[in-house]
Each structure stands twice: as C-alpha cells, then as structure tokens.
Design goal:
The chain is an alpha+beta fold. The chain folds into two domains: 187 residues, no CATH class; 151 residues, Alpha-1-antitrypsin, domain 1. Helix content is 17%, strand content 33%. Strands 1, 4, 5, 6, 15, 16 and 17 form a seven-stranded mixed sheet that branches. It has a seven-stranded mixed sheet with strand order 2-3-20-19-13-12-11. A four-stranded mixed sheet has the order 7-10-14-18, with no helix packed on it. β8 and β9 form a beta hairpin.
C-alpha cells in the first residue's frame, strides 16, 4: 500500500499486553496494583543493558506489532528519519512469533476502519473469550488523515495446580542499601509428610543451587506450553545475556526438589503500566514509496500479576529415584528472593522469553 502524497499521514502502533498470573483476586488486592513508576525502564528488546538501580521490563508485544507493520504494510525494514537505535533493534527482530503460541496473541495491521476493528475484536473474543475485557477502539483522528495501524495483544492467564502458601511474615527485600517489606508466597518450611507440600514440590524444580544468593528455579503450572524461571543470580550486561547464561546453567545439571525444612519465599508482583516509545514518535518513514508517512504514536500496555494462585509456567515433574547419594545430614537450603533477581516467561520450545523482568528495586512488588 503506497502513497505518493507528501502530506503527513499517520501510522499508529497501538498495543495492549495482558499477562495475568492469577485467575482471580479480591477487591482489596486489586487496589495494590502499581500503575506509576519512577525507577522502572520498559524496553522493546532484550538487548537493553541492565541498570542496577532501575528495574528493567521487557514484553514481546511491541516487537510483534512492529513486525506486522514491517511485513504487512511497509514490506521491508522500517527506515526512519532521524534514525534511532531503537528502530535498528526492532528491525533485527530478535523476538519471532515462533517463540509464542498462536493461541496466545492477536497481531495484525491495516488501514484503520470499522471493519478492521470488528475483525480484531472478533479474533480476540474467539481466542480469549471474556477473559480479555479490553476491546480495541478506533483512536480519535484530529487530522482527518487516513490512518494505518499495527496492533498486537498478548494474553496469558495460567494457574498453579496447587496454590502456594501465603506467607504471614514479609520478605525483606534489600537492594541499593534500602530495605522494603513486601508480601510473599511460597512454602514456609517444607515437609515431605504433608500432602499439600508433596503437591507443591512437583511445581518447583531447582537448578544449580550454589548458595542462598545464587540459584535458579523453574515453576510449573497447568499449562504444558509455558515456563517461568526465577533466578537469583548476578546479572550479565543485558537481559538477553543474563537469560542465556541462566539457560546454559540449567542445561548442565539435573533438577532437584524441595527437601524437608527448606524455605521458599517469592514476592508478589502486581502492576499495570502504559509506556510510550517517544523516540519513535513523529519520525518520518523514508522507505521508497512511503515519503510523507510518519509514526504518530507508539505505545505499550503491560499488565502482570504473580501470586500464590498462579504463574505462567511449563508443567513438569522431576522424580529423583535413581543414582541417589547416600543419606547424609545437610543444611537446609533457602530459596528467598530478597535481593535483585530475574523473572522470565517463555514458551517451552521457544528460544527466547516473551517476558523478562530484572528486579533491581522493590517498586513493582506488593507492599506489606
């Protein structure tokens, strides 16, 4: 679709991302949702450098919208003037849709019209039902110009087979010299004789435990296609490098399960953030045949919740009966996420995560 007119016509990238870890919450808990932040950076790509002072949040939906704009509208890498580093990262397309199951997203592009909006809403309803209350509405057009949009929505709503324990005592999260009391869930003190704990142990796989500040957990849910990784490790330079290092460590060892008297304490996370990629907005597109077009708006909404009821995970049980070491007295391990850590959500067979969050501070946690 090409236009020779040099009048300013807009391309809108409009995204709504919903990754919901818990199927239901009560009214009091919903009030704790974080909607404004001061020390959280939202990135559209995994190669963003980790800042030890700020949280770093990535979700694949913006890349998905960029991809459909590039493939269905521009028909090539999107070239902007003035050029931006962000556009170069997006054109590299590190996050392909093969890393996300097709029933988890809607991504499309075209000329903004009632027919397109109806088609988007119909596909959302077919895939997500009433779980997604949001409907895509026609944005207000103040210029009377023709508009093109690229739209993507990513939705995951998964539950743990067995609900984790609510922790009565808060987790004291320490980072950058500050302590914050936050709500948590997990297992207060594991006992293999408790039926509830036996079920919970099948939801937790432990990889490469080195000490209380260096370990990796893989949790499982009712989804056989998704995995969640919690890693309390020293970060690498970027999100991608940190994730790659973690996966490498997991691939070199066998998983273990929770043992008697061990503690698992994970923070509750609950936020609903909207971010505009201002570095892309009002930039002219200089691809041949697209002179006069510009990106008018580029934004992303990310809704994420993690608590004792649910998380996005792959369902997998580890039974370690063979090659067992002789019984010995060992100091109980502790799995307490009380310092900076990484959380990743990924498709089981995906190469890269579709959601990654490095927690450098307590800004996105549910306070005690």
């Amino acid at each position: 679709m090409k236009r020779k007119s040099r009048s300013v016509i807009s391309i809108i990238i409009s995204l709504c991302v919903m990754i919901v870890a818990s199927a239901c919450t009560n009214g009091n808990e919903s009030q704790s949702t974080i909607t404004k932040t001061q020390h959280t950076t939202i990135s559209s790509h995994l190669e963003e450098q980790i800042d030890l002072s700020n949280n770093l949040l990535y979700c694949a939906s913006f890349q998905m919208a960029w991809n459909v704009m590039r493939d269905q509208i521009i028909k090539g890498d999107i070239l902007l003037e003035p050029d931006t580093l962000l556009a170069k990262y997006l054109n590299r397309n590190l996050q392909e849709n093969i890393n996300i199951s097709s029933d988890s997203y809607v991504a499309t592009a075209g000329e903004l019209s009632k027919d397109l909006v109806t088609r988007i809403n119909k596909e959302q309803q077919e895939k997500f039902g009433n779980q997604v209350a949001h409907e895509f509405n026609i944005p207000q057009n103040t210029t009377n110009s023709k508009q093109l949009i690229a739209y993507a929505i990513l939705y995951k709503n998964l539950e743990f087979p067995t609900e984790f324990e609510k922790l009565e005592n808060p987790i004291v999260f320490t980072a950058n010299g500050h302590e914050t009391f936050i709500k948590g869930f997990g297992v207060h003190s594991f006992s293999s004789t408790k039926r509830q704990h036996e079920k919970l142990s099948k939801q937790v796989a432990i990889f490469d435990y080195r000490n209380e500040d260096d370990f990796i957990l893989l949790l499982t849910s009712k989804s056989a296609d998704d995995q969640i990784i919690l890693a309390k490790v020293a970060p690498n330079k970027t999100l991608l490098q940190t994730y790659t290092s973690i996966v490498h460590r997991m691939g070199k060892v066998k998983a273990s399960e929770l043992r008697d008297n061990e503690t698992l304490r994970m923070p509750k996370i609950d936020f609903d953030l909207i971010h505009s990629f201002s570095e892309l907005e009002n930039k002219r597109i200089i691809n041949k045949g697209w002179e006069g077009w510009s990106i008018a708006k580029a934004n992303q909404e990310i809704r994420f919740k993690l608590d004792e009821k649910g998380a996005v995970l792959k369902s997998r049980a580890f039974v370690a009966l063979m090659d067992a070491p002789p019984p010995q007295i060992e100091k109980p391990r502790k799995f307490i996420f009380d310092k900076p850590f990484l959380i990743c959500l990924k498709q089981k067979n995906g190469v890269k995560p579709y959601f990654a969050l490095w927690m450098s501070n307590s800004e996105l946690f549910v306070g005690k």
